[in-house]
TrEMBL record:
Gene: mpl
Catalysed reactions, semicolon-separated: UDP-N-acetyl-alpha-D-muramate + L-alanyl-gamma-D-glutamyl-meso-2,6-diaminopimelate + ATP = UDP-N-acetyl-alpha-D-muramoyl-L-alanyl-gamma-D-glutamyl-meso-2,6-diaminopimelate + ADP + phosphate + H(+)
Pathway stated in the Swiss-Prot or TrEMBL entry: Cell wall biogenesis; peptidoglycan recycling
Location of the Mur ligase C-terminal domain: 322-443
Full protein name: UDP-N-acetylmuramate--L-alanyl-gamma-D-glutamyl-meso-2,6-diaminoheptandioate ligase
Length: 460
């Protein structure tokens, strides 16, 4: 089969392209921004890339066009290829639909959903299954350091439901299918990690997202398992709408049925219904990762991995790129990269680093880049998100709201700059030996990490 992917350089569609190539399909694709590292990864796989969405690509005559959700008819002039596809009446489908039909069919799908922690928990779960010898397939919205790739088919056996672990995103599928992506995946094991308001560009309120999560719940068979964060009121409401599968809760209180942790996030006992069943000792920090671990362990148990074995596997888990990733050190100052962009994720990331570094100074450097943050929907939460940092630096360029006003409660602890270079200059002026520079964005942040390290190195 020849597939041509529109929006191929996104993390999901790029992973889909890798799976398609591994499965033996011919893959071509286009995007408005064909640039490294994704472009290099795809070309290394033998994927032909085309810059832009020109209508002349119709002449490729693939068996099917696979449409990414970056494509919009509201901006039809930006996507002439899509208009040509519709005009010609040739076959097209969405990425999640193609994946469900061509890759996930017949597999035991383990889907990890939630506002936060999807990528990390998916990676943990895949690694646990790998160490257990199950050779899982996976598709992750990041690069797990244990694997070095974001997607692979794993072991496939006729007549056997071999495991496939997938990061299950609640964002919409395509311009012609406004359901959440995860509705297509039909998991037998579904992790609902947490649930907060996000994606203000497509969801009017939290209830609308809860509805999509309940659509996911409806697709899990009676023989399946829902792994639920017991601390989330929104998930209680989701299950109250109806539940037809077994439920395993994690993060429970005291001796309630389910999994809970006892001890510090880097070294803790795992208790099931009050009885110690395993112990995790690893390099990760933060209570959020402790909860992620419980979720991954519960999901792995559903495919036959004992909790004690899962705990031992986590000891060798190396996390995911851009999750408190140390990018370098210069002049006695460490520079980190993290994907955090939602206020809750920012607060959790800062808190995790605080637990590691104690009283040493943390300079939090962030850009409100997600669609939700660009709209200013959660701007009032920023002071709360950043209160554990010693100083906060915000890139305010391209916003329709004033970050200075939102960060005013932080007083002189907050600095706003409309340019990356201006922000770098202010950070370098403030940084001193022993500091930790924590850069947070769901994009490339204008190469700020390299610029900071270069500037620090120039101090001599």
């Amino acid at each position: 089969m020849h597939i041509h992917i529109l929006g191929i350089c996104g993390s999901f569609m790029g992973g889909l392209a890798a799976l398609a190539r591994e499965a033996g399909h011919r893959v071509t694709g286009c995007d408005a921004n064909v640039y490294p590292p994704m472009s290099d990864q795809l070309r290394a796989l033998g994927v032909e890339l085309i810059e832009g969405y020109g209508a002349e690509q119709l002449a490729l005559k693939p068996d099917v066009f696979v449409i990414g959700n970056v494509v919009s008819r509201a901006r039809a002039e930006a996507f002439p290829l899509m208009e040509a596809i519709l005009d010609a009446g040739v076959p097209y489908t969405s990425g999640p639909q193609w994946l469900a039909e061509q890759v996930l069919a017949g597999r035991h799908v383990l889907a990890v959903a939630g506002t936060h922690g999807k990528t990390t928990t998916t990676s943990m779960l895949a690694w646990i299954l790998e160490v257990a010898g199950l050779q899982p397939g996976f598709l992750v919205g990041g690069v797990p350091l244990n694997f070095g790739v974001s997607a692979r088919l794993g072991r496939v056996a006729a007549g056997e439901r071999t495991p496939f672990v997938i990061e299950a995103d609640e964002y919409d599928t395509a311009f012609f299918d406004k359901r959440s992506k995860f509705v297509h995946y039909r998991p037998r094991t579904a992790v609902l990690n947490n649930l907060e308001y996000d994606h203000a560009d497509i969801f009017p309120d939290l209830q609308a997202i809860e509805t999509q999560f309940h659509h996911l719940v409806r697709t899990v068979p009676a023989s399946g398992l829902l792994v639920i964060n017991a601390r989330e009121e929104a998930l209680v409401r989701v299950l109250a709408r109806g539940c037809w599968s077994e439920v395993e809760r994690f993060g429970v209180k005291s001796d309630a049925p389910g999994l809970r942790a006892r001890g510090e996030p880097h070294a803790f006992d795992v208790l099931k219904s009050g009885v110690k069943v395993a112990r995790v000792e690893w390099s990760l920090i933060g209570e959020h990762n402790q909860l992620n671990a419980l979720a991954a362990m519960a999901a792995a148990e559903h495919v036959g991995v004992a909790l004690a074995d899962a705990a031992r596997a986590l000891a060798s888990f190396q996390n995911v790129r851009r999750r408190l990733e140390l990018r370098g050190e210069a002049a006695g100052i460490k520079v980190y990269d993290d994907f955090a962009h939602h206020p809750t994720a920012i607060r959790t990331t800062v808190d995790g680093l605080r637990r590691r570094v104690g009283l040493e100074r943390i300079l939090a450097i962030f850009e409100p880049r997600s669609n939700t943050m660009k709209l200013g929907t959660m701007k009032a939460q920023l002071p709360w998100a950043l209160e554990e940092a010693d100083l906060a630096f915000c890139h305010g360029g391209g916003l329709d709201w004033d970050p200075s006003e939102s960060l005013a409660p932080l007083g002189d602890k907050a600095v706003v700059s409309d340019s990356i270079d201006g922000l770098v200059k202010r950070v370098l002026q403030a940084a001193r030996p022993g500091d930790h520079l924590l850069c947070m964005s769901n994009g490339g942040f204008g190469g700020i990490h390299a610029k900071l390290l270069e500037g620090l190195a120039a101090r001599g």
